[in-house]
Amino acid sequence: MPTSPFKTEAILERPLTLAAAQLGPIARDATRAAVVARLVALLEQAAARGCRLVVFPEMALTTFFPRWHIDDEDEVTAFFETDMPNAAVAPLFDSAARLGIGFYLGYCEQVGSGEGRRRYNTAILVDAAGNIAGKYRKVHVPGNPVYDPALKLQHLEPWYFADGDLGFPVFDCLGARIGLLICNDRRWPEPWRVLALQGAELVLLGYNSPAQLPDNPRQNALRTEHHQLPMRAAAYQNGLWVVATAKAGHEEGCDMMGGSCVIAPSGEVVAISSTLGDELLVYTADLALTVEYKKFFDFAQYRRPVAYRLISERQGVGEPLDRAAWQKSLET
Ligand code: CDV
Fold first, then answer.
1. Which CATH number goes with the domain that contains 218?
2. What proportions of the chain, in percent to the nearest 5, are helix, strand and coil?
3. If I label 252, which of 43, 288, 312, 320 is the partner at 20 to 30 A Cα–Cα?
């Protein structure tokens, strides 16, 4: 693949040294203390290598339990955090503040209790002083809302989690405008564009993606391609950097993809993990590189929202609009 010349430029205008902190498998019975110790170890490595921002995976504190239908409500509840930060994650927040490193952390969030209880697949952005600077709740929650014995691979996220209700916010943090996404979000073009319309320069994303799809086996050989393709396109079309971090490896009988990566606004994958275990992938991104691509795709000049109206008005595929309907939609 041809590469753009920016990699050889010695002087970066707005450098931000960041890292994807990939995790290997987390056991179903792993304690929070054991997991947080692994996160802190990666943070220490990041500090030693000059990082200012570390991106942990989706659901970084627990195993990916939506692969099971769990009846035991106490076991399910134990996967969720009711407060953030809390005593279990305090060592992570304390270390980050001491080291002056910001981080993205995916976790399972429970709001309230009893009948009114809500559960979300959530990511937070923590600044270099250890304060929560932003929160996002996963909007594209894939899989089945109920257990389906016909499926070879269960993915019961909608059974456990409500759709995110915070939209796609951006946060000014660490000298960058940052958006947060979670796993399946990366496969859809809309969230990237909504973030870019708010000036996002850097999008952070954690994921748990099975390495094989036994119910769609023809896609198995393309898993890495289907992981990178939408993010590379999104980086290029929106002029932004992407850091995507996996929970990888053989987790409780399921092979999870690695391939944590950093993608430049050129659409190039500029760094990629090489293991399926705990691994720190460090890269110094030049935020100034976003400018060239944001100018190339000058939204203010070239976008035609009126012509795209169907995207926000229609959810699934419907009948073609006839000419009169198009005309009407362009006029109103
Ligand atoms: N955690 C995820 O959202 N995983 C999905 C699975 C269902 C394919 C993904 O898009 O990778």
1. 3.60.110.10
2. 35, 25, 40
3. 43
